[in-house]
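Supplementary material to the annual report.
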Amino acid sequence: TQLLEQSPQFLSIQEGENLTVYCNSSSVFSSLQWYRQEPGEGPVLLVTVVTGGEVKKLKRLTFQFGDARKDSSLHITAAQTGDTGLYLCAGGRGGNEKLTFGTGTRLTIIP
Amino acid sequence: DAEITQSPRHKITETGRQVTLACHQTWNHNNMFWYRQDLGHGLRLIHYSYGVHDTNKGEVSDGYSVSRSNTEDLPLTLESAASSQTSVYFCASSPTGQRSSGNTIYFGEGSWLTVV
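Predicted assembly:
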């Protein structure tokens, strides 16, 4: 079973600060996705990266896929309270393959 | 709008009882999944299906079963509920994926199950 470890598990920072969340594995994935989950709801897809070294930006969020396609990072610039939530990475191997989810990072942005 | 719905949203049951959680999607997706989410474990795959009459075991399938008689529904059955199955259960669906774009999964809102 592939294992995706996320770090840190918990992160609490002040509004306006920057942060980076990591997703690491010993396995290679063909795609890596990031989801955000809010209390009482299911995860919602933020981005998919498929090429080693790929960088995607979504407003203040920057996602990077590692060159070897084993790891990924999520960087948030000038965090806002609306960024609070559980961030999950998920790795896939092929178009129809089930995803393996990471352990999650619970982010709290303090006003 | 197309959607994926789970029912019930909350349920309390007794140890040993059979419980079925329903999942219905209106996207006509071929792929459907059941995950459980527990603190410290993230989302773990229970069962999944790639089409009608297709079912497969995930990493934590013991004590659970699914059936896929049509495209829209994938009910999850706990044959004899145990306290260890107290969890939040998420159903999800996705279209047949493309290698170039990855596999986007759409989640339901979750079913909170407590086994006492």
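Chain B has a mean pLDDT of 91.
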